[in-house]
Design brief:
Elements: H1 3-9, E1 12-14, E2 18-20, H2 30-43, E3 59-75, E4 78-83, E5 89-96, H3 100-110, H4 114-123, E6 133-140, H5 146-155, E7 160-161, E8 170-171, H6 178-298, H7 301-410, E9 420-433, E10 436-442, E11 445-447, H8 452-457, H9 461-468, E12 469-471, H10 474-489, H11 491-503, H12 510-525, H13 531-547
Parallel strand pairs: 1-9, 2-11, 3-8
Antiparallel strand pairs: 1-7, 3-4, 3-9, 5-6, 9-10, 11-12
Helix pairs in contact: 2-12, 3-6, 4-7, 5-10, 6-7, 10-11, 12-13
């Protein structure tokens, strides 16, 4: 045990069994407490007949106030609770992380080469995804029930320092010693320290990983700039030559296209001129035909025959003229189509020669883009792998932080809590019927006052006293009830408890019996029990007095 705690552990305190509730205005004495507990315990004793104090099948062997030991130990600015009897224990599960230094070594050894570094990250993508192993450490006696710890904290202000040995209480000796508590605290401290150190080491490793990735990305970007510069120089070097070649190709094909276009244009011009002549001839023939018709109508018989003959000749020529015009139009269309085809052929041939002439230039551009694209993909790969690994690291750190928060849950906050051995009182009743025995625990309670509803209902004594006593903590009641199982499973402890219980029983110890009788009278005066019940319990005390 650390030196600062040694002195504290020698201190002993005791808590009161009853605490006045907010609605309790009158004093509730120790005598009343013992009398009320006796009343409740006797009421729960199995009886053969319904009338009080008649023949019984079950015997109340003892009813005594027992002190349960709880250690309060200062720890890391808070207080730990240890079960003095060791009934309770807590097992901490600790997830062991992978060896961070091995990972860091791999990073450092391969960080000078992008390819080696990328391969290292790819190989270690799942390095921090799962824990290596799960370790379990059992802390004997450590109380971690949060509700019990919270309730106990509200209970502590009522405790008093023990100045002398108890003579009217059965004190359960603490079986958890200082060295066992020290061992438990050392386990907790070591695990806490280890968790903090692992959080720190993972954080440092994450920092190393991110810094190395940034450095490699910067190196890749420098390589991209070198690639751009290298290809820019090569492109600039061949650019004038390619430009001259392209100018020559364009000039050659421009000249060819111009010449071919000129020839086709001449042919089209000749066809256009021929078309104009044919159209003029057609119009002239139509005009002559109209004139012949007019003359025929106005001429006499001799001249009429002449104009009729001439009209026939003209009409005979018209179909031929139409055919020639259509044929000429067709030839014009053919020439225009041939011109378009020739121009397209020349353009295609020109483009092919331009492509051939530009190939070295285009190849350099394509090579530059390919190299840059590959390097940019390398950056994306590094960023993705780093993100995946750091995400696993963060999850692992979060798990460790959750583990550390468990320490806050299992401790009682506040630096002002006392340290030492605190006794929690409860009443223990032992009943016997033949060779059967049973134990009943009555945990610490809040003492209220008789409400209007209780008075109006005219409740009987047991119902009234049940309304008087309210368990101050369900968690504490559950915890103290473990004592019954502990007693039943440990014959030596049962023997000690029985002997101490009989010696300090409120039924068998004269001073306590006197107090119980006075308490019964006070309960009667405050209408918690009737006069008849007071007399019945007075006889019960007399029977126990005679037995002693």
């Amino acid at each position: 045990m650390p030196n600062h705690a040694d002195k504290g552990l020698r201190k002993r305190f005791v808590l009161p069994f009853t605490t006045p509730a907010a609605n309790r205005l009158r004093e509730f004495t120790k005598d009343m407490e013992m009398a009320a507990i006796l009343y409740i315990a006797e009421s729960k004793r199995e009886k053969g007949e319904s009338l009080v104090l008649k023949k019984t099948d079950e015997k109340l062997v003892f009813l005594t106030e027992v002190c349960y030991p709880i250690w309060l130990i200062p720890y890391n600015g808070a207080t730990l609770m240890f079960d003095g009897l060791g009934v309770t224990s807590h097992t901490l599960s600790y997830d062991a992380i992978p060896d961070v230094e091995v990972f860091n070594k791999n990073i450092r050894e391969n960080r000078d080469s992008t390819e080696a570094y990328t391969a290292t990250l790819d190989r270690n993508t799942d390095y921090f995804r799962t824990f290596n192993d799960k370790e379990e450490v059992k802390i004997e006696g450590l109380i971690t029930i949060s509700r019990l710890i919270d309730d106990f904290k509200t209970y502590l202000p009522q405790m008093k320092k023990i100045e002398r040995q108890f003579t009217t209480k059965a004190v359960l000796a603490a079986t958890i010693e200082d060295r066992e508590i020290q061992a438990g605290i050392e386990h907790l401290a070591n695990m806490r320290k280890r968790a903090n150190k692992e959080i720190e080491s993972i954080g440092e490793s994450m920092k190393l990983l991110n810094q190395t990735t940034v450095q490699r990305i910067k190196a890749i970007r420098r390589e991209i700039r070198r690639v751009q510069k290298k290809y820019s120089l090569r492109i600039e070097k061949i650019k004038p030559k390619v430009k001259r070649k392209l100018w020559q190709i364009h000039s050659t094909y421009d000249l060819r296209i111009a010449r071919k276009s000129e020839r086709f244009k001449k042919r089209l011009q000749h066809l256009h001129e021929n078309q104009i002549k044919l159209q003029r001839t057609l119009r002239h023939s139509r005009t002559e035909a109209k004139r012949c018709k007019t003359r025929m109508r106005s001429s006499r018989n001799g001249k009429k025959a002449q104009w009729t003959l001439k009209l026939k000749r003209i009409r005979k020529k018209l179909p031929t003229l139409h055919k020639r015009i259509k044929a000429n139009i067709k030839r014009m269309q053919n020439v225009e189509a041939a011109l378009k085809l020739e121009l397209a052929l020349q353009k295609t041939e020109c483009d092919k020669r331009i492509e051939i002439a530009s190939k070295i230039f285009l190849d350099l551009q394509a090579s530059r883009e390919a190299e840059i694209t590959m390097k940019r993909r390398g950056i994306a790969t590094l960023e993705d792998l780093t993100h995946r690994i750091t995400s696993s690291m963060r999850e692992m750190v979060q798990t460790k932080r959750v583990f550390l928060r468990e320490f806050d849950i299992i401790t009682m906050p506040g630096r002002k809590q006392p340290s030492g051995l605190v006794y929690v009182p409860f009443y223990l009743a032992r009943y016997e019927k033949g060779d059967k025995k049973r134990y009943v625990v009555y945990p610490p309670s809040l003492v209220g006052d008789m409400g209007i509803l209780t008075k109006m209902k005219g409740a009987l004594g047991l119902a009234k006293l049940n309304a008087l006593f309210q368990s101050r903590s369900k968690a504490m009641a559950t915890f103290l009830n473990q004592t019954v199982e502990l007693i039943e499973n440990n014959p030596m402890l049962e023997k000690e408890i029985t002997e101490a219980g009989i010696q300090t029983s409120i039924l068998l110890k004269k001073r306590l019996r006197v107090g119980v009788k006075e308490g019964l009278k006070e309960l009667e005066n405050q209408n918690w029990i009737s006069e008849k019940e007071f007399q019945a319990f007075s006889r019960l005390l007399y029977i126990y007095t005679s037995a002693v």
